[in-house]
Fold:
Amino acid sequence: AVTGPLELDALEAEARERLSRGVYDYVAGGADAELTLAANLAAWSRLRLRPRVLRDVSEVSTATTVLGVPVPTPVAVAPMAYHRMAHPDGEAASAAGAAAAGACYLLSTQATMSVEEVAAATPDGLRWFQVYVVRDRGWTAELVARAAAAGYRALVLTVDVPLLGNRLRDLRNDFRLPTGLKPANAPPAAASRQRELAADVIAQAGQFDPGLTPETVGWLAERSGLPVVVKGVLRGDDAAACLDAGAAAVVVSNHGGRQLDGVVATADALAEVVAAVGGRAEVYVDGGVRHGTDVVKALALGARAVLVGRPVFWALATGGGAGVERFLAGLTAELRLAMALCGAPAVGDLTPDLIA
Structure:
C-alpha cells in the first residue's frame, strides 16, 4: 500500500483506480476551467523559504492550539462530503484516523453518517462541525444543537456556496450519489422528493440558504453555544466583518476551486486576511496544501492551522481509517523536518521573515 505524503501522486492514482469515474471526478474536480484548482497548488510552490541556520533544532515540536485546545499538529481535516463514497466505514473511519494522528476533524453537513455516529466513533478526538445553513432555519438550529450535544467543539460556517459552482465534470458525468448513499444530516423533504434529493447533489445544494448575512454568525453561536468559524473568506474586509459579527476565527478558502473559477489562490489571499484580522482571532487556510513545506509557509504567513481535503479522501479510499492516520502522521512528520531545516523548533518560530 502507498503511504505518506511524499507519495501523493501514487496515492491519488491508486484511489482513482478504486473509485468510479463519477466519484473520482466529483472529489478531484473544480469549477469551470479549473484555473483556481491549479492555482491553489501553484501558489504554495511559488513561495520561497529563507531558512535560519545555527538554531538549536535538536527538539522540534509541531504542537499548537486551535481555539484554545491543545493539538499535537496544526494539520486538520477539511470538511468534505460523502466519505462513504471512498470507504464503507465513511466519516467514522476518517475521523478515527484523524484522532489517531492528533488532528482536528471537521465533519461536513453533507456527511454520509450522522453527527452522533461520527462522535461515537471518536469520543476523544477533537471534532468541529461544518454547517451549511439551509432555507429551513429551524432544521439548521436543531442540527447545530445536536452537534453541540454530541461533543463537537466549534461550528464552521461555510459562506462561499450561496449557489453551487459550475462543476463541469459532474455535469458531464451526470453525477449522482452511488446507490444506497444519502446525506445523513439532510433536512427533511416531501416524501416524493426524498429519493430524488438523496442522489442529486445539485438539488441538495438548492436547499442552501442564499440569503446569509453577517447576522447568521451570531444566530448560529446563540443556537449552539459554540464558537463559530467562518470558512470561505478571501478578503480582508470580509474577515473583519466576520469578526465584528462574532466569529471566533476565519478560514481563508476558495472551496478547493469548486465554486467561482478564477478567484485568488488561498496562499495569495492569506496575508491580507491575517493583516485585517490583526491578531483579534485565529486564521486558518486550506486549498492545495500538500507538503510539510506548504504548512510551514502557511504558518509563517500567519495561519494558526491548515485544513487538508482531497488527499485525506484518497487515503481513506486506499487504506480506510489507518490510511488517513498514515497520511496525516506523514504530513506532520514532513512539517517537523521542514521546521528543523528552517531553524524553527516551535510553531511560534514560524514567522513572516521566513518567506522570501
